[in-house]
Amino acid sequence: MFAKCLENVRNTEPVIHNITNYVTVNDVANVILACGGSPIMSDEAEDIEDITSVCGGLHINIGTLHKTGIEGMFRAGRRANALGHPVLLDPVGAGASALRTDTALSLMNELRLCAVRGNISEIRTLAKGSGTTRGVDADAADAVTEDSLDKAVEFVRRFSRQAGCIIAVTGSIDLISDGARCYVIRNGRPEMRKVTGTGCQLSGIMTAYLTANPDHPLEAAAAAACVMGLAGEIAWDRMQDGDGNAAYRNRIIDAVYNMTGEELEKGAKYELR
Amino acid sequence: MFAKCLENVRNTEPVIHNITNYVTVNDVANVILACGGSPIMSDEAEDIEDITSVCGGLHINIGTLHKTGIEGMFRAGRRANALGHPVLLDPVGAGASALRTDTALSLMNELRLCAVRGNISEIRTLAKGSGTTRGVDADAADAVTEDSLDKAVEFVRRFSRQAGCIIAVTGSIDLISDGARCYVIRNGRPEMRKVTGTGCQLSGIMTAYLTANPDHPLEAAAAAACVMGLAGEIAWDRMQDGDGNAAYRNRIIDAVYNMTGEELEKGAKYELR
Amino acid sequence: MFAKCLENVRNTEPVIHNITNYVTVNDVANVILACGGSPIMSDEAEDIEDITSVCGGLHINIGTLHKTGIEGMFRAGRRANALGHPVLLDPVGAGASALRTDTALSLMNELRLCAVRGNISEIRTLAKGSGTTRGVDADAADAVTEDSLDKAVEFVRRFSRQAGCIIAVTGSIDLISDGARCYVIRNGRPEMRKVTGTGCQLSGIMTAYLTANPDHPLEAAAAAACVMGLAGEIAWDRMQDGDGNAAYRNRIIDAVYNMTGEELEKGAKYELR
Lengths: 273, 273, 273
Hints:
By secondary structure, chain A is of the alpha/beta class.
């Protein structure tokens, strides 16, 4: 199934509209190309509807959020919704500032999202802020470890049902749920945290996978997370004496570029709960 | 001649003012350094005239156009015109949105441009929009291939005369005309499309070449296109097992950095029509 | 001492708030990770105080200054001052435009800076503009060479006393003074000028070092300059046939990533005046 997801991206070359931060935008563009998609960037409110209309999917990332850019996110999102394009939100820094938390929550409330991808702190912030009266288990706030896994899976599943979209929590263990099933993924390397923007890159890849696999969004999202994690493993194996995080960054994108469906099926480490 | 153009860049180290998109701006800066120029970036309207005044050439790229940035493009362009600096326009996405098409056409109408460099779709959009009553051959809209070459050359030549500046259409075959002559260039590799911003990079290099070779702008523009394409070929030959588009990106810039005039003369594949 | 400074960064992982230009921001993020810190970027005035509050140090760089971004620089700076966080200013392009010069001077006047790091032209501009009636020796305007060294040291020392913060002038010889003592550092390679943003990267590293070594700011700033220069030397030794400025850029960051305290002590080339 994951191989099929990968091949669908390579065969359809989905065009992805990215409204993203200026820190990691170049890597996001190159990794979308590496996985088989085609990236376009535009964040000007008066440009954004035209651009989204020529794309197949929309990726919104609030990593360097500007107040003047928020309107464009909504306009692009509404247009993408009208066109039936998948929309993915990466709520970078939700919880670290009020503006980011509020903007992410508004985007979740006013747009029909296909998926939200973030780290556990960001997702926990959104779950708390969404006004559920059931509360959110504080334990789920902790890093997802083998010990806290059961509770974390339950948290992600519940928040996915509540939010009405796929929730992807990524970290040393990735949890990706559509409210019913939950993929638990153990690909990746801890050193990936030393490369800026591997999360943003995964959001870009995931949007391409969601766009190219409209009938199987959960599998597409899980496949994308396995691609990124496995690329981190393959890239690490190619590291040479003297290489550091800059070489690693390049090698990760290269591993995405060269990944085959067979390699993905063989290397993906996941269970379905 | 091309060797001389290259050496003029290396010897004069032209300072290039870039108003460009935030996606590929770092690669544009590094490739301008690689070819022998010196890049400066500024897009704030109140900063831009001072900056352009300390430069030798101006490169305007609308890849992530903001409405608030348009005034600065005009102010920089008018100042560069007053100072006699060459101005190059890269109309990224013209045809994909009304804002981009309109802005590119206004820049062409109100500034005295030295060159416009884009892909065939962007250039076709500008040619249509410029209000010619002779019309533009729809066949020229197609990708430039050996079969459509004669018509495409005629289209580029005619649009160059009409626009009053060099028109550079780049793709698998590059066509660069000053209205009289037209260079047909066959350097490059198809894999260059898998690296984001190779077109933006070429625009940066071309501006440096135009600035350092004021007496031979057509040759300078053609030399720049050969440099970029040849760098893509040299870089491809240096690819190793496991390398992908991130490694390729670095190797292309490295090939520009190491290119000699002799290498350029030997590797340039062009004819003059 | 320098080894201790390095280890303090690696052990405390200081979180650094960067308000910086969009040209070199990705390299700044990766080099801060490489040296052991953790970068966050935010330049929106309404976001910036929240973000600075979760950080340990603030790095302000005016490389692509926007008028709309200036308010945020002051708000972040005042908040960082209130929290006792070190603030470093990189006055990119001071002297090249009135907006940059004026903004840099205002930031120096209204914020309590820990350090200002720039090239000799930028620092000279600030020294002139600060309204000293003693004047600034015009000779100090020249590049810092062995011949002009004595005068340059005196200039930097005097301006540091006047400005009330560390002044770091970097170039082929680096001069870093707190008004009393002055480090004269001879690490680095001339080829580093061919990589865009090595100065911005040093400013990022220096902010991390200042944050992790609050009791020894002068040593921390000097150690950071040695780290960057030594990384440039190590990276150069690793260059292979066909490598250029793109490979060099990656190798420099990799050398920062792999540098040990022992290596730094052994490779640092400095004298204290």
